[in-house]
Amino acid sequence: MDRFTAAERALRQAAPHALLQAVQGALATHYGAVSVDLLMADYAMTILQPVSELPYTAEPISVHNSSPGRAFGAQQPYVVTDDRGGRLTAHLPISVRGDRIGVLSVVLPQEVYDTATEEELANVAEVLGHEIVVGERDTDVYLQARRANRLTLAAEMQWQLLPGRSCSRPEYDIGAQLEPAYAIYGDNFDWSTSADHLTLVVTNGMGEGIEAALLTNLAVNALRNARRAGLSLSDQAVLADQALYGHYHGDVYLSTLLLRFDLDTGQTQIVDAGSPQMWRLRQGKCELIQPEAQMPLGMFEDTPYTTEPFQMEPGDRLIFISDGVYDVVSPAGERYSEKALMRALASTRLLPASQVPRAVLQELAGHRGPIDADDDAMVVCLDWRGRQPQD
User: Fold this and answer.
1) Whole-structure pTM value
2) How far apart are CA 61 and CA 189, in angstroms?
């Protein structure tokens, strides 16, 4: 048995709460590792939290100005050498299908580290990521380690509802973020992929606290129920509308944008049932896309919904934002969507989709100034490549 297979087996056989101990033992035995640390990205994606004695962790590490942060941001191994001690530290990004989870930091003697070792350790980090995702069903260890602060109950409900914060396939990349990360209300995003289609839903929540989270939970699960039953995009909207109206009788409702992309052709169906905005960046030109507006979900009884066609082209970038982004006003009275948003979208055009939402939200904080946010904010970025023809 080779050393990578041995490390992989150790992780597969480890108890869900003991993955760190398993990878520490495997890398020490088979790779000569001096020490091994697991760093988890926090909910705000601004710091990396070392997994140690829970529910508390060691001192957090900045994503923006640290060696582990460089590996996390670039999604490439980053090595720091200590010539006096004869050792090096390899920081290896942990992600699952594009969803960035954290960093595995491994201290090794310099003489045992080469290109083959780096590749194997990167693969160990990938296996660890998959095991963390599976293990989170049975343990709170990794979810606790992600917390720099206590989540509100509404935020707990919302984060558990999300599919992830990024996703990557040959045809597309998705990145998404919600703020304030530890006190979000009702904004939400959801996606699901199949062999030939991607379905993406962005929701601009209504209300605050638990009531907003309950409203969004009902809507998202109704949409998932309809999607998993094989219903069309318009019928998914109808079923969710009926579920919300049946429970709330029109007292509250939900603004939602639904899209279904054909991975082969880029042909897209859209149901615009509310206020999330969609911006397109194509060949350097940024413009607001405004599909035909239909009623928000749950506002009226038996509302019909229809789909509108939309065509994606390779290289397109779509940015989806909630009113907690575009309606924010600067101290001088300028709405973010008037000028600052387009500047932010232009300045982030070279960033990968996974990093765009965080960068836009940082720009938003600067626009808002010292004023505290009075609404949650959602940014979702979709980079479209489409399916390449087979030889």
Assistant:
1) 0.93
2) 28
